[in-house]
Xanthine dehydrogenase accessory factor
Amino acid sequence: MQPLDNEVVESAARWSQAGEDVWLCTVLATYGSSPREPGALLAARRDGHCVGSLSGGCVEEDFLARLQAGDFQSPVQVVRYGESEDDRQRLALPCGGILEVLVERLPATRESLRLLTALREALHGQRRLVREVSLATGATGLETDEASPTERQRPRIQRKGDRVCIRMGPTRRLVIAGVSPVSVACAEFARSLGFEVVVCDPRDELIATFNVADVELRPELPSSYLAREGCHASTAVVALTHDPRIDDLAMIEALRTPAFYIGVMGSRKTSATRAERLRRSGGLDREQVERIRMPIGLDIGSKTPAEIALAVMADVVGVYHGRERL
């Protein structure tokens, strides 16, 4: 999930609690070019106020105009943009693609608030859910997602007759151990990719110089943060300082978590030395050490901080999607 979708569910829950009906829209499928992937969310109120995105803007404008005109009163319906037998849905998308959107009307009831609260908990990593929506009645069921990490690489949305199953999981998170020029570039890339970003460094003077928008800064050892806060399985932990006092401890603590990616910066020689040090002094076994990506990132001949950050984030995204390193 993306941080924007967190904002969607948070806003929808607030509106519902305040007694407002909420229209929750989910991208079900895209055909051809589309700026948003299946699972993307938008929430709206009757007055046209909305949070989230379904496309580049044209679909949202059409949807909100129709909502304010009194459409979408049924509990659930599927709207197809870009190609439809219904003239009202034949909006041509600038990208030339086709978009299917699930529109759910959630009245201001305790049941709706319970649903939105459960979705909020899923997005914050408390548990993974599968949400099943009946296209006939709008009835929604929630179950814990028991899929394995490999199975979670399958499409998040599945159609089963007159039902839609939507997997909801936590927003991808990047924990950066230590402030450095590479850390700055990495945080910028990660934010543009939709990651939540947390940067930890005990050196106050360096934390004070870190200036990337929408990043959570923690003036503490990353190992302390990980030991206290832990992380969910959609978290990547990267150590980027070249300081073993910060990097090594971060790796040891990260290995106690279900993080899908753990990596540390350094040359092949430095990495071999670190591996031996982690086994000898850190008490790690060979299997644990092999879980760490070191040297970190893809081998693209990176030299500058931006190039190294590009290699790191490309590797992180590849591992997240189940791709083997080339």
